[in-house]
Each structure stands twice: as C-alpha cells, then as structure tokens.
Amino acid sequence: MHIILASASPRRRELLSQIGLEYEVAPSTVKEEMEGALPAEIVQGLAVQKAEDVFRKMKEAGAKDFLVIGADTVVSLEGAVMGKPADVEDACRMLDSLQGRTHQVYTGVALLGEKEGGAAFRRIFHEKTDVTMYPMTKEEIAAYVETKEPMDKAGAYGIQGRCAAHIEKIDGDYNNVVGLPAGRLYQELKKCGI
Amino acid sequence: MHIILASASPRRRELLSQIGLEYEVAPSTVKEEMEGALPAEIVQGLAVQKAEDVFRKMKEAGAKDFLVIGADTVVSLEGAVMGKPADVEDACRMLDSLQGRTHQVYTGVALLGEKEGGAAFRRIFHEKTDVTMYPMTKEEIAAYVETKEPMDKAGAYGIQGRCAAHIEKIDGDYNNVVGLPAGRLYQELKKCGI
Fold first, then answer.
1. d(CA B160, CA B180)
2. Minimum-distance CB partner of A170 among B160, B167, B174
3. Cross-chain CB nearest to A183 (options B134, B172, B186)
4. pLDDT in the model for residue A148
5. Which residues, at least 6 apart from A95, have a Cβ–Cβ distance to it below 8 Å?
C-alpha cells in the first residue's frame, strides 16, 4: 500500500522513517479552519482537513490502494490553545507562560485510505502528552528564542532540540510532542491491516 | 570550563550537542564493577567509577578548570536489572519480558570537576523514567532484533530508533531513556555555576 504524508513537516517525515515506513510527501494546500473548542477537537479537525484535501487529489489522479496521513499539533495551557508564534515577542510570551509548569500537547491524526478492492477506511484519533518545564529566566528565554528554533513550532519550543535542557518530564508519548504519535500510529496501522 | 564526557556512547554525545554544550570525549577504560543492589545505586556507582577514572587521568595530565561527566543506564523490571543483551536470544528474551507492561529506566550521572582556583566539586544524581510498551508479537520481536538495533542497548531496545513504534508512553525524562537526562543535567550544571 502506498502511504502519503499530507504534511510538509520534516519532523513528521523523520518519525515515519524512524519506525520504518516507506512513504511519499504531498503537503495539503487546504486553507485550514479551526473547528471546535477543545484542543482534541481542533487537532482532529485540522488533521482531517489536511488528509481529505490530499485524499481527494489522489482520487482525482486515479490512485488506488493508498493511505493518506494527516496530522496537526497544538499546545494547550489550562485549556487555551497555542499554535506557532507570530513573531519573536510572541515566542517569548508563550515560553514565559509555559516555563515552570505543566502543559498539554495534542496531536490529531487522520488516516484516510482506500484498499485494493475499493473499500475505503477512515480512522481519526488524537494523543495527549503532559509536558513539565523547569523554570526559565528571561535571559534563558531570550537566548533560546535567538536560536530561531521556536519560530515554526506550536508553543514556541522544540522538545527534540535545544529546549530539551528546559524539560523536566513528560507523561505520554514523546513523539506526540515532536509532531506524530509514532507508537499509536503504528498500532492503528496494524488494525487497518497495513 | 573544559567539559569531558567519560563515555563512548554516540547517543550521549548527541544529547550534549543537542543542548548546546561544547565538550570532548575521553571514554573511561576502568573495569566497571556493579555495586549496590538497587538500580539507582548501581547506575550512580558505575557513573562515578567512569568519571573518577577520567578525572584521575586529567589531573595526572595537569589539567585545570575542567568537568568530567560520567553516566550509566540500566533497565529495571520489577526491581531486576537488565544491562545490554549478550546475544540475539538474550535480546528476544528481554523484549518478551518488557512488552505489554511498564518498566523503569535509570540513568546515573557523576559530575566531577575542578575550578580555576583548584576547588573541587562533585555532584552525583540519577533520574528514573517509567516506560510502557505496547504488546509485541514474537514476530515483531524477531523482526526488531533482526535490525541489530537492540544489541548495544540496555534492555535491548532503542526508544529513539525503530522501537518507537512499540512504546505506548513514558513518565519522566525521555532523554534519560536515551542515555542522559539532558534537562536535569543542564539544571545541575547551572547549580555548579557552569
């Protein structure tokens, strides 16, 4: 079966490779619209929008026996959702609100596929991981933002990068924080017979 | 200050680089002797042995203003300690005992240093992370062991490698499972004024 990742994220690509999947990349071009109020609804909704966009294009191109993976990740602090920072000030503000406490990272995943005989399948799920950060000083936050690592990441940090120095612990799947819950994804693909 | 990693592990090197530390590598050549019965005592004891070996050599070479980092990691299942597998059968046996349940990973760290004026410092600590694995079939275990990834790793798995597909969740520091608790290490170095 042909696997297509509907995301341009290099981190999601690396995670698929890490667990040994072969895939192609076809980022969705849909204008994403946040739906729902709860973080879990939002990430699942955005994952579905991305996957449906690429699924439709695959069908139009006459593809058969394929699976599209859509995913979206947000950070949630006491229920308030954070996406990627708008600018340097926004990144500093986000990090200052996250440091010294525990927040949640949600990744939603949509698996939309069509098997050889034409049978469609659809699985949508999310994983939540609690992340606890050590306290960070203003100077530490400024130095971290200066690395530019925060700018393209939900919540303005990369757990797999320099920010590892400031992470006390997590509770849940680590790769879910990176951008794709690799363990759950593998288990769901098994259930789909892939 | 000159930082020396008393370990040949490429994963520990990568973690130090990830959090932005500059260091040199000087693996200890000491014959490691397990001391103590509890996993925390064992890893701290081995970390100290490695760091002391390199510290002594640095002193003999007339080094000043330096810090040696020693570390050791073991897996513990219901209190029984697992190191690296002896062979393929041992790796399969370890993975079969870990799959479908929760175990503990302990990494002990020893920081032995001497500051500019000659003042010595010494900090020894450990971190514990709970790791929960999804159930694995005999076929999945055999396929994973065939990748050879398990052979040089405590507990016969690499959470940062292919085994990510089989990890349900963790509770604690992820990098502690990889081989060095990067967050705690950074905080301890700060306390040492480094």
1. 13
2. B174
3. B134
4. 97
5. A136, A141, A144, A145, A150, A156, A157
User: Which residues of B are less than 8 Å from A165 in CB distance?
Assistant: 19-20, 182-183, 186
Look at residue B111 and give its three-state secondary structure. strand
Query: What does the pLDDT look like over B61-115, one tens digit per residue?
Result: 999 999 999 999 999 999 899 999 999 999 999 999 999 999 999 999 999 999 8
Instruction: Judge whether A71 and A179 are in contact, CB under 8 Å.
Output: yes
Give DSSP secondary structure letters for A77-138: ETTEEE-S-SSHHHHHHHHHHHTTSEEEEEEEEEEEEE-TTS-EEEEEEEEEEEEEEPP--H
CA pair distance A32, B180, nearest whole angstrom: 39
Report the chain B residue with the minimal C-alpha distance to residue A187.
B165
Please provide residue B33's backbone torsions phi and psi, each rounded to the nearest 5 degrees.
-120, 120
Q: Which residues of B are identified as catalytic?
A: 72
> pLDDT-based confidence at B135, cuts 50/70/90?
very high
Please give the model's pTM, rounded to 2 decimal places.
Answer: 0.96
What are the phi and psi torsion angles at B4 (to 5°)? -125, 125
Q: Is A194 in the B-facing interface, judged by CB distances under 8 Å?
A: no
C-beta of residue B105 within 8 angstroms of C-beta of residue B155: yes
Instruction: Determine whether the interchain pair B19/A164 forms a contact, defined as Cβ–Cβ distance below 8 Å.
Output: yes
A28 with A51: CB under 8 angstroms? Answer: yes
Asked if B183 and A172 come within 8 Å (Cβ–Cβ), the reply is no
3-state secondary structure of A40: helix
ipTM: 0.95
Distance between CA atoms of A93 and A77, rounded to whole angstroms? 13
Instruction: Report d(CA A96, CA B59) in Å as an integer.
Output: 42
Q: pLDDT band at B142, cuts 50/70/90?
A: very high
Q: Which of B19, B161, B183 lies nearest to residue A134, judging by beta carbons?
A: B183
Q: Closest by alpha carbon to A77, among A18, A123, A19, A131?
A: A131
